[in-house]
Amino acid sequence: MATNKPSNYEDDQVLQLSEEFQKLENDPAVGLVIVKANGKVFCAGGDVIEYYRCSLTGEWALAAKIYQKQLTLDYLVATYIKPVVFLINGAVMGGGAGLSLNARYRVVTENTVFAMPEAAIGHYPDVGASYFLSKLPGFLGEYLGLTGARLNGVEMVACGLATHFVPSKVLFHNLLLLEKSLHEMDVAEPNTIQGIINKYTHQVQLKEDSVLHRLNFIDHFFSKQTVEEILSSLEHENENATLKEEWITKSIRSMKAASPINLKIFLMSIRKGRFEPLEDCLTRDSRISSHILRRTVSNDFLAGIKATILEKNYKPKWEPSKLELVSNDMVETYLTKIPENEGWKELQLPPRDMREKAPRAKL
């Protein structure tokens, strides 16, 4: 299965993928499903321009329904009965991460880049991020979601976001061979699939400057109870350090530029997600994102898209403008149900048998 418009994640493509996944799952002739993208980007996220338009024109309930289809697709893939192999050769962010990172086999290359930079555009890391990021070592998930920091393919395998690293090499030769070998399998059993992928997998080392060598420091800073405390501890370290670390400087810069209310929404969400099943995390994402589209509390989504994507001045006017102006009551509002008489309904995920737990961190 190949996605032909990998740069964004449109409603018709979500519908097409959902129908295809269901058809293949029910086809007795299909033993496993391989998913890849045609192009240099695997999937860089949802169609935020359409969401922006719907929110701006008051059609937020329509956008919420489209978004719920995306969450339902993510849940279908995460609970898929048959083995699914994602070949992630390029950028995987936002909606692309929600689609692929709960699958059983997640193959990355030297071209793969992962990030969840939503807070920079007035949203928050969603599509189940509170589930898959909270399963990473320590408080690495908080760091990735609050700063939008990027990880390469090697780092994704090391922390557990990916399961295998296969160099793409010239003209994606290795990936083509891997795909051919998987197609030629007689029996699609986990041990057989694992053995085939392992033939093409390379053992690679983290670079010396990888942030994953700083996990003790990440845990120290990002285990704090509030966003304010996290940012303050980073600033204190930066001010008093003899030799400033680049990842700390970048973290401070990113968090100060991001939407204050969405930083707090994400921290609340991932702290809940650490102790919840995927279904609860997706249901919460549906509620939160519906409130964001409805502009129940803040216009930050509109401000962020306008500044970063439409006008490209990269100077969004956040409201509230500072972390200390974002109250707990504001954040809690995003967890509430919206009246159904406004055209909104709670996310209803189909009953599924949960698949075997995927392996996580190799650190």
TrEMBL record:
Q: What class of enzyme is it?
A: hydrolase
Q: What is its EC number?
A: 3.1.2.4
GO molecular function of the protein, one example?
3-hydroxyisobutyryl-CoA hydrolase activity
Gene Ontology biological-process annotations: L-valine catabolic process
CDD domains reported for this sequence = crotonase-like (cd06558)
Concerning Gene3D superfamilies, the annotation shows: 2-enoyl-CoA Hydratase, Chain A, domain 1
* Catalytic activity annotation: 3-hydroxy-2-methylpropanoyl-CoA + H2O = 3-hydroxy-2-methylpropanoate + CoA + H(+)
Task: Please provide the record's keywords in A-Z order.
Answer: Hydrolase
What pathway does this protein act in?
Amino-acid degradation; L-valine degradation
What PANTHER family does the annotation carry?
Answer: 3-HYDROXYISOBUTYRYL-COA HYDROLASE (PTHR43176:SF6), 3-HYDROXYISOBUTYRYL-COA HYDROLASE-RELATED (PTHR43176)
UniProt family annotation? Belongs to the enoyl-CoA hydratase/isomerase family.
Identify this protein by name. 3-hydroxyisobutyryl-CoA hydrolase
Q: What organism is the protein native to?
A: Zingiber officinale
